[in-house]
C-alpha cells in the first residue's frame, strides 16, 4: 500500500503524517529502504576515526548508477556543522561516464528507530530533484539531518548499544549523457595513399601470418596482414590478405574511421595486378579493426610462374586507401 504526503507518492507503506523542520521533510515508514542499508555496531569508533573526512559506505547500484553514502558523525566541519549528524549521497564510478553527463535523482534517507522498529524518512522539502554532474558529486544530502543530542538520546531509538542503522532510496528521474548518438564527419578533399610491401623469400615463410610495417594514411596508422597458406575459408587453398587499423585502442570511445581501400598483388611480368576493392568502403573501429579476404587469390594461381605474382621467390603487395570520414559521439 502506498501513501501520499504533500502530494508525493511514497513507495514504502506507512500511514503516518509528516512534518517539516529546517527545510527537511520527515515522515515515517515501517519498511526498510529499497536500495541500501548501513548498520554500524561501533558508532563510537566511527565518531573517533571519521570525524573529519566522513565514513563512506561501500558502493551500491540504483537506477543504473553507482552510489555511496557518506556519514559525518560529528557534523560536516567543512560546512561549519558541529552539532548535527551530516549524511550525503555521492555518485561513484564517474570515470566511466562521458563528458557532460547529468543525473537527476529523488533521494530519501532512512534512519531506524530501534525502539519502535520503524524508520524515519528524510527528504528535501523544497528541491525534489537533485542534479549530479561532474562538478557536483555530492549534490544530495543533509548538512543538519538531526541534532547529535537527539541522535544519541536512547529514548529516540536511533543509537542503541552503540548501534545505528540508516539507508537510502535513490530514484533516477532523468539523465543526460553525451555519447548517445554519433556524427559521421566527411573529410573534404580526401587524398589517396599508397603503400607497397615487398616480400622476399616467400617460400621460406613458415608462420601462419605476417604483417607489414605500420604506415600512415589519412592521419592513422595501418598494416597489411598476409596469410601465406590462407586462413578461415581460404585455409590451404588461397592466400589470405587483410587491411588492418594498427592501433585501434587509441581511438576515442565511440569513434570509428570510414575508409575506401583496394588491395593488390602485382603481376611482375605483364605489369598488371590481381586486386580486390572494398565495395562502398569499410568502417574501422576498436571492435572491428580489420577487413579483408580469406580467399584473396588461389594458391595455384599465385604460384604459377606464368602469372607473374611470385617472381624470384618475391611478391609485391600494394594497398591504396582513402580515409573518407570520421565517426564521433554526439
Automatic annotation (TrEMBL):
Domain of life (superkingdom): Eukaryota
UniProt-listed SMART domains: MATH (SM00061)
InterPro entries the record matches: MATH/TRAF_dom, TRAF-like
Family annotation (SUPFAM superfamilies): TRAF domain-like (SSF49599)
Domain MATH: 33-170, 192-321
Any one Gene Ontology molecular-function term assigned to this protein's record: cysteine-type deubiquitinase activity
Keywords: Hydrolase
Listed EC numbers: 3.4.19.12
Cited CDD domains: MATH
Protein name as it appears in the record: Putative ubiquitinyl hydrolase 1
